[in-house]
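input
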Amino acid sequence: MKNKITYIILFILLANNICLATTVDENFERANTYYKNKQYTEAVNTYIALVNQPIKDASLYYNLGNTYFQLKQYPNAILFYEKALLLDGSNKKIQHNLKIAQNKALTKIENKNQFFVVKAMVDFYIHQQQNFWTILFLISLVVFVVCSIIYFLTQNKIKNIASKFAFLFLFTSIILFVASYRFNQLQTKHQFAIVMENTKAHSKPTSNSQINLLIEAGNKVKQLDYDANWIKVELPNGKITWLNKESLQSI
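output
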């Protein structure tokens, strides 16, 4: 009797997931049709309803970013392009459209002064897919294990070579594990946010501490700390300031 109840529950859950997936696909196609017909408001509403579903996909965020771009709501477009990059960081189309939206939204894009090699390495690190570093870590770990086995089973010259490769891939595995761990932290902590409206910077988390600095909508900032309705952020140029949390949307 218990087995029958279990099977029934599993069947209901499976049927529910199938129905949900079918509904999501249908609504996604409906939203795409709205977009093709230049019914951008209807497309946005349909895409947004899908965002609230448990099924996430980079193409959903990408299409939503494109729709907001057509509506000239550039901060929203930037937000969803950034969300798409979290799921598909190496996608050139998303990166290209993000740059166009940033150029539309921002009169001046300021970034930290970084040596071009360092900047290229940081961009490569950030724009990988979530499982990229984990896969590299696992590959490196497997090679380390294989080299270790060869070391214990062989003699002389092969043993010496295997030991060197084992140490090399052990060190590589440690580096990749740290990279994977830090990358997953960045993705899960909502460390970055988009400024959704032009807002004044503040030196302290209080309304009477405005400084003569306007932060344009569309800027990507790094969230450092929280205090009630205020968020301490690092601006693209490296400056630290406080912004009202109502003006920000986490990526």
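quick obs: The helical segments are 2-36, 40-51, 58-70, 74-87, 92-105, 116-126, 132-153, 156-188.
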